[in-house]
Amino acid sequence: MTATELRPRRDPSRATGPRASPALAVRARRARFWVAIGAAVLAAVVIALIVLGSGATGGAALGPDNAEQGGAKAVVQVLRQQGIRVVTTSTLAQTRKAAAVAPDDTTVFVYDASGYLVRSTWKQVAGFGSHTIVANADQTALDVLAPGTQAGAADLKGTLSPSCDLPALAASPKVNGSGVRYTSTTPGAVKCLPAASGGGYGLVQVSRASHLTTVVGTTTALTNASVADDDDSAFALRLLGDSPTLVWYLPSVTDLPAGTGTLASLTPGWVTPSIVLLAAAALAGAVWRGRRLGPLVVENLPVVVRSTETMEGRARLYERNSARMHALDQVRIGTLGRLASQLGLSRNASVDDVVLRSAALLGEDPRRLRSLLVDTEPTDDRMLVSLSDGLRDLERAVARMVRDR
């Protein structure tokens, strides 16, 4: 038999590389679930940001730089091509400064979608330029800019016809009427674009002194999505281009008065859907993977261990390691606690208190009792037993004296 034949053969079924521990494998399997959940939540948040992300630059509704369907970039670009000077602003101070350059030749377009402007702010807006156009105005803005005008409860829908002779509607026999309807009891108010049913108008124009205010409810006609439909482009360009300068004002959080505003008004629109989505994902994960407690089951203990066995086991450990001092300390601690209880001392009483009270009761020398209770160290097993017996006798003597008093 050759040397090669004498070598042990290698079992090919056995792994040659390092093997992962079972605990590590279990943790890896559990981690896969949470990694998948995290990836799904991240993907959902990204989708929500894309779909609902109106907080991005230029992404606001009727935003002059927003090229999405709800923006108004197309109208603004065409106005600029026709020679209209369009100035975009986002604060009241910027708007005031832009309108002050040529107030008699300036139209101010305002769309306060988030309700940042209050009554006092609208009063300031009313003094900017010669013509103020308000899109989807709330009742606060109407009370200041067009008293006697009210917003209807139902929305406008469908295609509307002018029914008035405003220049802005001269070339627009059909206008997309989606938006807010208004009614007005103001004397001399011009009401255009009547609703097909239910009453109300898509445009109301009020003239006071030398200032003109136009309330526009058909805001869909100004957006990129509808500006090419029907006669919306002519309507948007004639309405917004009646002055050489157009200030396009979208209020922001900066315009809120000090001490006002809520968390909802100060956060972008995508925050709330994202929080709801994260909470739903966390709840789904908890329900799926959470531990479920079933009914209580009564089980018999596998074994009953007597207290004496525990004590004897500890004693054998002390004996095996020659831990005489440690064993004696355990006996002394128990003796001091029982002596303090018998002598009426508190649980926080010191060793000296126990020694002095015991010595006074027994008429013994405190130094001898302290040596027994604390100081003396056993040098062999015989001395350990002797000290243990002394502690027992001391405890019995104290108990007898207390009982006989």
CATH architecture of the largest domain: 3-Layer(aba) Sandwich
Radius of gyration: 45 Å
Number of strands: 11
Could you list the spans in which at least 5 consecutive residues all have pLDDT below 50?
1-18, 53-58
Computed structural class = alpha/beta
Remind me, CATH topology of the largest domain?
Rossmann fold
Number of helical segments with 4 or more residues: 14
Taken from the alpha-carbon principal axes, the silhouette is: elongated
Sheet with the most strands: spatial strand order: 1-11-2-3-10-9-8
* CATH class placement of the largest domain: Alpha Beta
The structural domain count equals 2
Helices and strands, in N-to-C order? HHHEHEHEHEEEEEEEHEHHHHHHH
Walk me through what this model shows:
With 405 residues, this protein is α/β, with parallel strands linked by helices. The chain folds into two domains: 186 residues, 3-Layer(aba) Sandwich (Rossmann fold), CATH 3.40.50; 98 residues, no CATH class. Helices cover 44% and strands 14% of the residues. The strands form three sheets. The chain has a seven-stranded mixed β-sheet, sandwiched between helices. Strands 4-7 form a two-stranded antiparallel ribbon. Helix 2 packs antiparallel against helix 9. The radius of gyration is 45 Å and the shape is elongated. It starts with a helix and ends with a helix.
Topology (SSEs and partners):
Blueprint: H1 3-6, H2 22-52, H3 73-81, E1 85-89, H4 92-99, E2 106-110, H5 119-125, E3 131-135, H6 139-145, E4 149-156, E5 159-160, E6 175-176, E7 179-184, E8 190-194, E9 201-208, E10 211-216, H7 232-240, E11 245-249, H8 263-266, H9 271-289, H10 307-320, H11 324-342, H12 351-362, H13 366-375, H14 381-404
Parallel strand pairs: 1-11, 2-3, 2-11, 3-10
Antiparallel strand pairs: 4-7, 5-6, 8-9, 9-10
